[in-house]
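SAMPLE LOG
Freezer: B-3
Tube label: C17
Construct: single chain, 462 aa
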Amino acid sequence: MKTTGKSCVSQLSVDIIEGLPDYLAGKTRALIIGPYTTRQTIQEAARHPEARLEEAEGLAKAIHLEVAASLLLSLNTIRPATYLGKGKVEEIGELIEDQQVSVVSMDCQLTPVQQRNLEKAWGAKVIDRTALILEIFGERARTKEGALQVELAHLAYQKSRLVRSWTHLERQRGGFGFLGGPGETQIETDRRLIEERMRRIELDLDKVKRTRGLHRKKRRDIPYPVVALIGYTNAGKSTLFNRLTQSDVLAKDMLFATLDPTLREIRLPHGARALLSDTVGFISDLPTMLISAFRATLEEVTLADIILHVRDVSHEDSDAQSQDVAKILDELGLKIEDESKIIEVWNKIDALTGDELSALQLTAQGYGAGRRPMLVSSLTGLGLDELLTHIEKLLFKNRATLTLVVPPEDGEGLAWLYANTEVISRNNRKTGATKLTIRVGPERYDAVKKRFDCFEEVISES
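STRUCTURE (predicted):
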């Protein structure tokens, strides 16, 4: 992309627009550093440092970086200039030269000054956890909405990088209009361009949000309940989604394999239909600005009839991952009011030993009857029949099952029942009348009762 004096677009702005940086083109040797402080929060303390570093490696591999080496560092204090102590910086510099590393991924949040100082000391590109996740998001977004959400998060991150330490952005442009004057510095121009682009994206996303609202209204008009999947990234949501819907959504042993939301129909044990929604996975230490771009998508979750919280119980930090999911929803203000509609799905039991599975089953039995988790393997299909039965039971516990006869001349009434209720079975009689067994929610029960006065029986489901 060429730049002109008129556009006043710096190289940084060009990088933002053009997408993935050069250092991610092809195989690049990377060093992964886990610099974790000894003074941790309660939630951080619940995590194993080795598992955190393994996750950082997984993030790097998700954008095809070749992990040359990984380091686990225990820090007492964080240095304002370089995050790490001087001795560690020098020691790592020798490792970088020895391993011919061109990218260093720090599993933490770096300030722009820290990033710049480390790059000067090591002679390599330095990225922090946020930048790495952003690159993954950018590579995985497939829909227009997903691309907009990623670009908004990317611009918000780049805006925070525009600081006085970037000397190439301090060049001044000439003034405009009659007054002249010093004009804008390049850093001010970039900030203004970024803010303008962010406003345009936010307007586009508002349109998407309104469209989603219309779609939700249409789905409410259709008598199909919605079941949504949430969970930590790589918990197996997409594999479970594919198993339940017989679809082929991308499902890999890879962090953030799914980014764009997907909706498919599922069949429940007694023939009822529901819509299953797959969503982006969550991850620890993710700044709210990154996930907030997906708020419109995640709002779908809180409005679902049933929420399946998928957990990878084979992971040593499964409990901490579960807390992260709740924390991110809370930070976004997406409170799930009715916790009784959440089903915990303990996935990947195929990866457990016999003793581990027995212990997990005992743990599950300790939960109350209404909150008992479902143990499944989305890979082998183990436990999925029980899960579907449980979903059906929860979905229809407040719905009535009615058996009625529609006279042959009431074709309009028959069509109305198909449009506004769930038809479980149909039997055409010799007289021309149609006997139907339907399931109806409390919001339409009175309408059915008013429209049809020929119930043969009414069964209330508990």
